[in-house]
Amino acid sequence: MKNNKIAIVGASGSGKSTLLDIFLCLITADTGKILIDGILLDPSSIREFQNNIGFVPQTPFLSDGSILENISFGLPKDKIDMNAIEDAVKLAQLDDFISSLPLGIDTLVGERGVQISGGQKQRISIARSLYSKPSILVFDEATSALDGNTEADVMHEINNLSSQKTILIVAHRLSTVKKCDKIYFLNDGIVEDSGTYEELFDRNDAFQEMAKKS
């Protein structure tokens, strides 16, 4: 479903991480096939597919460098597209934080981001995923370290991207997936149900119970 927001949800141990690893081609499924626009994804096309994905993990890795270096992640400074950096920073709700720093985007984050908060690290990770303008964005519990207001702001910006990108969200907290076009509800490694948030809330008791706790 191109340019849609898709969510994978379920309790801990339901199989969300395994399904995501299969989608990212980090592990191979024992059975079944992956088709992209009707074309079989095989070993010769995996790298090309992965290059179109921007991934935001639950626990981001930051190098002992500046915010700029961590968003561009490995590019020499003269190769960095500053317009793309500015767009990514704005979408990740980092602009106010960066403008408050004496050194701005050149501020060092410390080894593994020790100088900044968990929420700020997560937003840098989100900005990194957006910098290369991928056609697919994957968020693996990516807003779990954010406070409620920041999460709402980030999700608002992510939702606005859905007309331009395919977005896959893996979440335990169902408040992050209310506006997804389709939600897959996993239980014990099986897709137990699927539909919109409202459809699942109305007919699926387990989903409703999870939603009430979110």
Largest sheet: 6 strands, mixed
CATH class of the largest domain: Alpha Beta
**Cα radius of gyration in angstroms:** 18 Å
Low-confidence stretches: none
Shape: globular
Helical amount among residues, as a percent range?
Answer: 25-40%
How does the helix and strand content classify structurally? alpha/beta
For the termini, the CA-CA separation is 26 Å
Strand order of the largest sheet: 4-5-6-1-7-8
**What's the mean pLDDT score?**
87
**If you consult CATH, what is the topology of the largest domain?**
Rossmann fold
| Architecture per CATH nomenclature, i.e. the level-2 architecture of the largest domain | 3-Layer(aba) Sandwich
Count structural domains: 2
Query: Which H/E pattern describes the elements?
Result: EHEEHEHHHHEHEEEHH
Instruction: List how many beta strands DSSP finds.
Output: 8
Overview of this structure, please?
The protein has 214 residues and is of the alpha/beta class. The protein folds into two domains: 1-52 and 135-214, Rossmann fold (3-Layer(aba) Sandwich); 63-133, Rossmann fold, CATH 3.40.50.300. It has helices spanning 16-23, 46-50, 67-72, 82-91, 95-99, 118-131, 148-160, 197-203, 205-213; strands spanning 5-9, 35-36, 39-40, 53-56, 136-140, 166-171, 182-187, 190-195. Strands 4-5-6-1-7-8 form a six-stranded mixed beta sheet, sandwiched between helices. The protein has a two-stranded antiparallel ribbon with strand order 2-3. The longest helix is centred in the middle third of the chain and has 14 residues, at 118-131. It is globular, with a radius of gyration of 18 Å. The mean pLDDT is 87.
